[in-house]
Amino acid sequence: MTRAILLAALLALGSAPGLAAGRPSGHPQIPAAIFTDPAPDKAHPPRMEVLHIPSGGVEINGVAYLAGGAGPHPTVVLAHGLPGNEKNLDLAQAIRRAGWNVLTFNYRGSWGSPGTYSFEGNLADARAVLAFARSPANAQALGIDTRRLVLAGHSMGGWVTALTAAQDPELAGAVMISAADMGGRGATPGARPIVVKAMAADMESLAGTSPEKMADEIIGFSPRLSFNAAVARGLVYKPLLVLTSDDGFAPGSDKLVKAIVYDGGQRVTARHEATDHGWSGRRIALEAAVITWLQGLPSAPAR
Question: Does residue 258 sit within a domain?
Fold first, then answer.
C-alpha cells in the first residue's frame, strides 16, 4: 500500500460514520431489543443453562443465555476482563432479546472456576469455549448456529478476543470493548513495579497466582502476545467492532485498527464513547452499538 493510499484510508477511517479515529458524534439507532421483550414462544422459550466447559484438564464455569424461538441461533461468546467485576450481563441479555445466544464463562482460577489463573490460560480457555460451542452435540443441545459464532470481550477480554480471533478463520466476527492490550503493558523498561502494583488491585476472585507472577508473565510474553503486526494481519478479513472509551486504553486499539487498515482491512468498525472503562454512563449506547453491528453481519464468515 503506497503512502498516498494509506493516508487516504486513514482519513476515511476518521471521517466514515461510526469509526473511531475521528471520534464521531451521533449514535446508532436504539434497537428494539434493548427496551422490548420478544414475542412469547411457548414451544421455544428463552432459557438459561449452566455450563461446565473442559479446558486445561478442568471444567470451567459458564452460563448460556439462550434465545427464544426455533433455532439454531447465532451466538456470541462473551469474555470478561481482569478480574471481571464487570461481566456485561446486561449486554448479554439485550443480545439474547435480539435473537442471539450468549455464552459467558469464567477463566481457570477465576470466580470459582477450578485451576490456576494465568494469562496464557485465559487464551486457552477462550479457544476451549469456542471448541465447546462448535461440538455437534453441544451445538444441537444449545441451539447454536456454528456458522454465525462471534467472540466478544471487554477489557482484558478484548485482548483475548483480538488474539484468539486473529487465529480463528471460522469466526463470523469479533467485538473488542475497551480492550486492554496485556502484551503491551510490560514492554517498557522498568515496568515490573508498576505492573505488580496494577495486578495487586485485581487479585480478588483469582486463585493460584500473585501480582508478581502475573507481572512476570506479562513481561515475559511482551510483545509476542500484544496487538502486534501478526494480530492485525489475522484480523484483516474479519468483521471487527472496536469500541473504546476514556480509560487510557484507546490508543492501543486505535493503533491496531490503523494497522488493520494499512494491511488492507475494510471490515473494521470503530467507535469511541466519552465514558469510563466499564461504560458506566453509556450502557444503552454500548448495547445499541453491539446489537446493530451484529445484525449487519453476513450469515457465514468470509473465506
Answer: yes
SS3 118: coil
CB proximity list for 109: less than 8 A, separation 6 or greater: 115, 116, 117, 118, 121, 206, 207, 208, 209
Write out pLDDT tens, residues 140-150. Answer: 999 999 999 99
CB 64 within 8 A of CB 51: yes
For the stretch 89-133, pLDDT in tens is 999 999 999 999 999 999 999 999 999 999 999 999 999 999 999
Structurally, the chain folds into a number of domains equal to 1
Run of H or E residues at 211: helix 211-221
Is 226 a member of any domain? yes
* Residue 36: inside a domain: no
Show the domain range for 205: 3-25+47-295
Task: Using alpha carbons, select from 219, 287, 224, 273 the residue that is nearest to residue 244.
Answer: 273
Contact call for residues 66 and 101 (beta carbons, < 8 A): yes
Q: Cα separations (Å) of 63 from 109, 148, 191, 238, 263?
A: 16, 19, 36, 26, 37
Residue 15 has a CB neighbour count (10 Å cut-off) of: 11
- Is 134 among the domain residues? yes
CA distances from 45 to 65, 68, 102, 140, 150 (A): 11, 5, 15, 16, 22
Per the DSSP assignment, residues forming a β-bridge with 59 are: 54
The closest of 207, 203, 201, 226 to 121, measured between CA atoms, is 207
Task: Supply the pTM of this predicted model.
Answer: 0.89
Q: How many residues does the chain have?
A: 303
Angle at 132 between CA 94 and CA 121, to 5 degrees: 95
What is the domain-level CATH number for residue 138? 3.40.50.1820
DSSP-based three-state secondary structure for 78: strand
